[in-house]
Amino acid sequence: DKNIWVVDVRSEKDFKEGHLPHAINLMEKGKFETWLGSMIKPGEKFYLAGESKEQLQRVIERTSAIGYETAIAGAFAINGGSSKEEEIDLDLFKNHLSDYTIVDVRNTSEVKEKAIFPNSLHIPLAEVRERVAEIPTGKPIVVHCAGGYRSAAASSLVHAEINGKTPVFDLSESIKQFQ
Which of 22, 52, 116, 149 has the fewest Cβ atoms surrounding its Cβ within 10 A? Predict the structure, then answer.
């Protein structure tokens, strides 16, 4: 069902090289359960995609820790896919910040403590799905957080939702060059 989200738990690198349409990259590492519960509504069906049967088993166990196991519409191993994520030209971005819509998906407290880019649009990761329509699509979109995990999830969701209207880039760990 192409209307059901695919939660792809593979590495950011593997996801960007090829994934299914309508996919969110919620990597197995990190706070997977927290972000799964924030991005997928309770009771909402979703697919799990991973690199192997073993990875899927681990993630299904973690999914059950928050009571979401009954919402899994299916789980399957994947290697690639028809959708790809473009890599940002970091030099071009650094020298032309105003040519991009920059979306900061950190928590409000993090942004208040230290804004990284002036004039960035702040939408915490937990709110991106509901607020994606607030993101202007007139310029390429660059999504960042503090270290890369949340921006991978948010950029993949934005990419799926705006459906090619404009390029979407994940600043990922390169954010460290700006902090």
Answer: 52
Helix (H) or strand (E) holding 77: strand 72-77
Report how far residue 54's alpha carbon sits from residue 88's, in angstroms, rounded to the nearest whole number.
32
Which one-letter amino acid corresponds to residue 130? Answer: E
The strand pairing partners of 143, in sequence order, are 103, 170
Tokens of 61: 């166990």
Q: How far is Cα 163 from Cα 106, in angstroms, rounded to an integer?
A: 23
The runs of H, that is alpha helices, within the chain are: 12-17, 32-39, 53-64, 90-95, 108-113, 125-131, 149-162
Buried b (16+ CB within 10 A) or exposed e, 138-163: eebbbbbbbebbbbbbbbbbbbbebe
Specify the pairing of strand 46-50 against strand 5-8: parallel
Q: Is 162 helix (H, G, I), strand (E, B) or coil?
A: helix
Element at 83 (helix H, strand E): none
Length of the chain: 179
Average pLDDT, the chain: 94
Quote the CA–CA distance of 102 and 122 in Å, as a whole number. Answer: 9
80-85 mean pLDDT: 89
